[in-house]
Amino acid sequence: MAEEAINDTAVLDQWGQICEQLKVEIGETAFDSWLKPLTVGSFNNGTMNICVPTRFMRNWVITNYSERIHKIWQKKNPQIQNINFIVQAGQEPIVNKGLYNPTCRSLLKRINSTPTPQNIYQSGINAVANTNDGVLNDSLSVPLNPQYTFENFVVGKTNEFAYAAARKVAESRNISFNPLFLYSGVGLGKTHLMHAIAWHIKQQDPSRHIVYLSAEKFMYKFVRALRYKDTTAFKEQFRSVDVLMVDDVQFMGGKDTTQEEFFYTFNSLIEEGRQIIISADKSPADLEGIEARLKSRLGCGLVADIHPTDFDLRMGILNSKAKQLGFELPQKVAEFLATKITSNIRELEGALRRVIAHSQLLSNHEITLDMTQDILKDMLRSFDKRTTIDEIQKKVAEYFNISVKEMQSSRRARTVARPRQIAMYLAKQLTSRSLPEIGRKFDRDHTTVMHAVRKVEELIVEDVSLAENVEALRRMLEA
Questions:
Q1: Kind and range of the H or E element at 86?
Q2: Cis peptide bond N-terminal to 179, omega within 30
Q3: How far apart, in whole angstroms, are the C-alpha atoms of residue 213 and residue 236?
Q4: CA-based nearest residue to 55, from 19, 85, 83, 84
């Protein structure tokens, strides 16, 4: 499509006004660091393209400023419906140059080649892959997040098997495991791995037809096909793909008609030697409301679970994310966050972003432990409100059919000692109480609690049954 005619002077004036407004809103230091280097490219089909010098800066601008830029600019010029941020190194700020970025324009003309997480992002949408190459069927697939790549996935003991399985499927030209079934609790990385597989396959072999969508969207498409009596077209769409990826399949529970269609789609693709990748919050055998024959099919390939994060993995994630954002996180702050925020990776990364943004907006204030505690006090209070050590003791005792009094006793029998260790581990994971505080609740000292936490972290990697028990207890307590 040809570029739209635009008034360069008017758009330049608008961009200058936006810059001045944002400088007032976020401060001169933050503006000079993040927004001054941006340059304006072409205007195409309602979309304004903005060039950013580095991938890191693009990610930061998208996360922190893109919505605001879009909102201000749309008020000034209703023709601008979307904003694209595209990495193009070595450009001076437009406010200094006084002209559009011709290099960025020529770059945009080449974007119809294989899309990558590094050069595609539409403001307000995760990442919309260009469908001219037939890689993603945009009418079926959901957008891919450009951050969710294998390179950005931090590997630890609790997720290394799932990572290895995902990588194997993405890299293999032949079908290795079919289906690959990934499962975990909320915010532990299964969706990240799903997106990473799609990005890798797409970059490795653009000719492969990938459909990636949620179970809810599959149901919506099927119900719509039934309503409009167009099930033949629906079947053709889904049974002609090379790779079918369905996220959160647990939402098909109780939807018998949808399950039946998915079952036949599944069988058809397997028979044709096409790859299927599924994710859910439980193992196939534990999915509720799913027919036995579909459970059997889902579990007939490779099933890989992602366990709750341990301390070392949380530290690795924090340091990796901080590095991506261009900050060096003090060790004490990283340890504090890794100890206090244990529920899932999303909340951990969210806390980190809050701390970094606060430091940046206050003219590069040093990140300290006191500052971090103050910034996150509302989040830490909410964690404390979620559950108490008393509730954990009661729930664990009920689960293992012992009494709270036995749990607090000096008995060392495994039937009592193991539940006690699990309760201590969960108290450390789900509350912000210190080791001595937890120990007092069990009539133990802090070294006993420390040993229990380490022991359970080791066991959830080695013992699948124990890991499932711990995860079940966690969900009950967080519900």
A1: strand 82-87
A2: yes
A3: 16
A4: 85
Q: Tokens at residue 360, please?
A: 């940046």
With a CB cutoff of 8 Å and minimum separation 6, the contacts of 469 are 399, 422
pLDDT tens per residue, range 220-230 = 888 888 888 87
Residue type, 388: T
pLDDT value of position 383 = 60
Q: Which two tokens stand for residue 47?
A: 């979309």
442-456, pLDDT tens digit by residue? 988 888 998 999 899
Residues 476 and 468 sit within 8 Å (Cβ to Cβ):
no
Closest CA to 472 of 274, 313, 305, 235: 305
The whole-model pTM stands at: 0.55
Q: Are strands 47-52 and 39-44 parallel, antiparallel or unpaired?
A: antiparallel
pLDDT (tens digit, 9 = 90+) per residue, 30-78? 777 778 888 888 777 788 888 887 776 787 788 778 888 888 888 888 8
3-state secondary structure of 309: coil
Q: In whole angstroms, what is the distance from residue 437 CA to residue 458 CA?
A: 23
